Amino acid sequence: MSARITPPDRARLGAGVHVAPVKIRFAHCDPAGIVYFARWFDMINGVIEDFFGAALGLDYHALIRDRRLGLGYGQAHADYLKPGMMGDVVDFAVLVERIGGASLGLMVPGYRGDEPVIAARLVIVTTDLNAHEAIRLPDDLRAALAAYEERCR
Amino acid sequence: MSARITPPDRARLGAGVHVAPVKIRFAHCDPAGIVYFARWFDMINGVIEDFFGAALGLDYHALIRDRRLGLGYGQAHADYLKPGMMGDVVDFAVLVERIGGASLGLMVPGYRGDEPVIAARLVIVTTDLNAHEAIRLPDDLRAALAAYEERCR
Amino acid sequence: MSARITPPDRARLGAGVHVAPVKIRFAHCDPAGIVYFARWFDMINGVIEDFFGAALGLDYHALIRDRRLGLGYGQAHADYLKPGMMGDVVDFAVLVERIGGASLGLMVPGYRGDEPVIAARLVIVTTDLNAHEAIRLPDDLRAALAAYEERCR
Amino acid sequence: MSARITPPDRARLGAGVHVAPVKIRFAHCDPAGIVYFARWFDMINGVIEDFFGAALGLDYHALIRDRRLGLGYGQAHADYLKPGMMGDVVDFAVLVERIGGASLGLMVPGYRGDEPVIAARLVIVTTDLNAHEAIRLPDDLRAALAAYEERCR
Lengths: 153, 153, 153, 153
What we know:
Strand content of chain A: 35-45%
Low-confidence stretches of chain A: none
Oligomer: homotetramer
Mean pLDDT of chain A: 96
Order of helices and strands of chain A: EHHEEEEEH
Largest interface: A-B, 34 and 34 residues
Radius of gyration of chain A: 16 Å
Distance between the termini of chain A: 31 Å
Shape of chain A: globular
């Protein structure tokens, strides 16, 4: 078992933290009636897409499509704390854990009200989609992440 | 970033280890042309289903459907080592890391030939699907896991 | 080939028609860089969930979870008119085509601006999720559908 | 409602027809405990991938990746005849309905034993993935389809 991720108390999230509500859909749920574990990552990927635009001022799809910047994952880790049920709204927060040379570490906890239901950690690796090789974080992305981190304190 | 999972060398897997090939499909892949990170977990879940039947002698679907045993995840963690491409065949091995009171820890590395492409760790939590509460690992499941572990040495 | 579905001109949709925007995500798209055909149905299912609440006044998830009303599909048909691209917003309209004894026919066209990009038709079959058999449309659902149809003219 | 697709009796399928078994997974199923309607199309897409290789002698992934031939869908239509349950094995048959100029019509019925559980119809449209425009069916694909049709009689 990997060391568990400890999500911060929701009440202690900084004012600048990007928080996005996601509604749990029928299609997210499995025969046990709860969110299928892999589907949580789809929701989180959508949250991260919007985070790029809203919090970093960089259009996620344009980065991929026009600048051919790959934003694939080097790591994905989730601790499932409470089952997610159809119709629930989960508020996901995006926290920057690490700005690396060619990667970016995020923690994404999800809350139902004040209760954490999931705590995820993701490492995004930047690549050149034409050359298919790792590249350094582009300067504008690095600067936007640093500014966001500052606003989250 | 969570501590990275170190997959064993394929050549050193014990003879009793359950290994299952999975073909990477068009539908597994994303606009970067590689397996979408969350889709790896779908493949792995299928591998675990078959592992229950083939290696433990317990029908996964019957456990859920007839015995109402929930086999949900408490943790899912993957390190993505190499991109997966359409048409590749990835061989997944299932290793038991821990047999707990009400949970079960698995490591699932995936290999393309001898090269590890993914290393995943999953914690399955046993629940009563009617009462919606955690329950101890059923005796037959515990015994089958212990016997499997023995065969993997 | 099934007879193609002809979506109405967007400009001619009645004022009462439920229209919902959906943003196309990275995870919806395939290695050709466009929405994977089956993923369109996930988007449409989400639109129909919200339609139940917003236009019919019936909580979709409560119908399934609390009243144990199955709202499965008897038919799903889509004509793909234009490729959907990451970042696009598609506006889906929900039109009632038929209120049957134990089923419900919907047409769901999707527009990018005024241009139709998809035209789908779905037949929802009402079932008793405990008895696993078809049942007649509940009276409140039937009445709400008839009232919605009226508002769409 | 679109005109329903009538699947052929399984016993009357020609000897040359490509038939492929697919096991229904936990991940295919929804909170009603049956296959989620859109997930059927994922299974069918996998069947069609294998059909290209096994019945037409053309590697599906190589067509897309190396020849940059798009094999997207212009239409997808399914009639859901019986619910699919976890653990079921469904045998899908692939029948050529039409070989067009720049498209290809398939009927894909699925059987559980002799009982049809789904009948699907798909129109594949051939495109140039670099130029993003429709192109005629390549000659080798056209010839392989005609030969397959012949063997199915």
